[in-house]
Amino acid sequence: MLLHHYRFVPDETLLDTSAFREALAASRTPIVVFKEALRELQTRLDARFRAGSDIRDLVHGRAWCLDQLLAIAWERYDWPDDGIALLAVGGYGRGELHPHSDIDLLLLLEHDDDTPYREGLTGFITFLWDIGLEIGHSVRSLTDCEREAHADLTVITNLLESRTLAGPEQLRETMRGRLSNEAMWPSDAFFEAKWQEQIARHYRFNNSEYHLEPNIKSSPGGLRDIQMIGWVAKRHFGELRYEDVVAQGFMNDAELRILSQGQAFLWQVRYALHMLNGRAEDRLLFDHQRAIAELFGYRDTPERLAIEQFMKRYYRHVTALAGLNDMLLQHFDEVILRAHETPDVTPLNARFEVLGGYIQVRHANVFRHRPGALLELFLLMAQHPEIEGVRAETIRLIRDHRHLIDESFRDDLRHQSLFMELLRSGGNIPRQLRRMNRYGILGKYLPEFGQAVGLMQHDLFHLYTVDAHTLRLLKFVQRFREPDGHEDFPVAATLVHQLPKLELLWIAGLYHDIGKGRGGDHSELGAIDATAFCERHGLSPRDTRLVAWLVEHHLLMSKTAQKRDISDPDVIHEFALAMRDEVHLDYLYVLTVADITATNPSLWNGWRAALLRQLHTETKRALRRGLDHAIDREEWARESRDEARSLLGTVGIDIPRADALWASFGDDYFLQYAPSEIVWQTQGILEHQPSELPLILANAPTEDMAEGGTKVFIHTRSVNDLFAATAAAMEQLGLSIHDARIATSSNDWTLNTFIVLDDDGEPIRDPQRLEEIRHHLVEELDDPADYPRIVTRHTSRQLKHFKVPTRVMIEQDEANARTIVELIAPDRPGLLARVGRIFMEQDIALSAAKIATLGERVEDVFFITDKAGEPLTDPDRQAQLRERLCDTLDV
After folding, report:
1. What is the mean pLDDT of residues 366-381?
2. Is this structure's pTM higher than 0.70?
3. Does residue 822 share a domain with residue 868?
4. pLDDT, mean of residues 746-763
5. Distance separating alpha carbons of residues 376 and 418, to the nearest angstrom
6. Which of 436, 470, 486 is the last residue of a domain?
């Protein structure tokens, strides 16, 4: 079944069959003649593809040319009678062949005994292999076809699409009769089986069209979804022309246009993938994305990369196709297969009713007479959570009336009130906003959101397009509100119920990334758009300012937690000043957690949770103390020391011994650690004395030391290369360092603490694994002259694709008399160890480090001084450090 008006016209300029027959007759090596014809055919097709020919002409043209060549090859063999035929099946049966698609053939026998044809079959198949065709073939009798099709969904699906290439057409007609839906696989059973098959296929791709490297055939919205529509329609209606499909009411002209355009685009991409790879390939990998974007004429602009422009077009097509697939299959089920059923009807108002659990319009002119009903429908669904979805015919009407949402619609107070009522309804708002996006309503009502639909960022950090990420963020906020949210997000789940107006968070979430892809600071652009939305929808000036502030500062909390030393009282005071009050702090915390979890599932772990929790707690304490009362560093250190001293007795530590030890530690030590950690480290040091071996303490996270990672404490003689050696040893263990606090006592013993996660991103809890870590570190750090080998592991294919230039930013932390080095570099094995070596070579002392891996890059922050404990203020020395880091890490 063709899903468009297109009809292929045989093209002798692709393959001159008369000339081919003459060449074949004149040659003693038919294999060479066939091979040359196939090579010339592909060369012509590729040239036409690069020149911009209609992709349908190329895909159907290649199939037509193969039809001719296979028929001619068939003639070379003596078949004893008309009891055998050569059929094209599957994709080839549809008349579709990409450069390296399988050529699916059925050698159909009238009778079960294949003895008379065995020699010819062997010779024919061998010949096809010899000339280089990629064939998939089966030899079946009519009885075989009937039996296997009855038992196997894949077989019946494959045989639905068949054409006779050589031999009697009557054999195929007989087969079709035996496989009719009266004989087997009636429409409802076939539909249900194929629907379950599609559900399973979509599940393998997380039910999402949005993948960084999508499979254009099998992902939701891919070619399989288009074929699914054709299979279901063909099984029910039989062989149909375009006009018949519309006449049967299965789809309309606009829907066929979407399918046809989407199929043509995906065919272009698939053809390019095959051509560029020289083999069958359906995965749109990063390298392919770049090459195809260039092939399709996209060029980088200041706002967006060519690859991002191309992928936006891809995502928009597959999103439209996935939505249409859902609607058409639901329509087929409701109106065609279940037409005889009479489910209960529950009126909702004059415009809507619920039929069998699904909402529908009460008459076809509802949206034309009352355009606001395009928003009202979603409000009703939020108010009635028992409604399972929207009837297919109503979805079709929604699509057909989207054009009514124009500027005058958006300026109508009634429509603005409906949208705000939806946001304030208290129902599952994200679910309704996802539906609005699926049906194309959200981007029409909020054009600034519509511009972001399908917009991707070309990196490994942002796994989703802007619109998909935004809706995921809102989904996580909804999860915080539900009972099971408290287990994974205890702080956010508590705070979300304390926010004065939840609708302000919905709005901030909608707008937080909406400024991306336009050039400039997306946070500032989003704040401008959010302000306009709030003013247009009648929010108070105070609420408007809060929403705009949240959008503009939505990255502030995560950046502060991950890049600043939040054990520093001055950092907490500065952040508290930015927050203004606890309301701003709580809104921003919930938004930040939802943003991180919605960006990339691997980002949210116990370590990041602990950082944000600590920042939130300390900032709330500072706000309650009063912003005009800056936190006193000495007082904070004294309080921490006194509380730790009060805990010493619980673990049997003599206070005078502890005081003698602490005398060499300095105030910064007591600022960095909680009292329980101080006691843990003190106990370890005192019990380890007088041994000269390195002391390594490693423990799993506990409630009183809730760091979200495994804490490794190292107490040993201070040597220049200790950080580099430690980083290299931890790399050997497969550990990732997320935080480092480097301190040295006045008698030159280290007080270094590392927060690490195992290679699965989780804290280490297994006692045997903890002991392995302790043993390995003692062994590697015992002899400073024996520097541990830096691991050289394989870099993943995806990482190799991204060329992230190393950037080094240097600034001064005057309050703490140290220099801050921010490093953005490609993520590579052994990176921290190499950085440590450079610090050692440059006579630099490290006091702390904040480590963050964001997809294909790292964003690490190091707090350093020179060996005398002074900040690096000399411009020449800064330039030397910057150059050394870039030269080493860009190799």
Report:
1. 97
2. yes
3. yes
4. 85
5. 6
6. 436
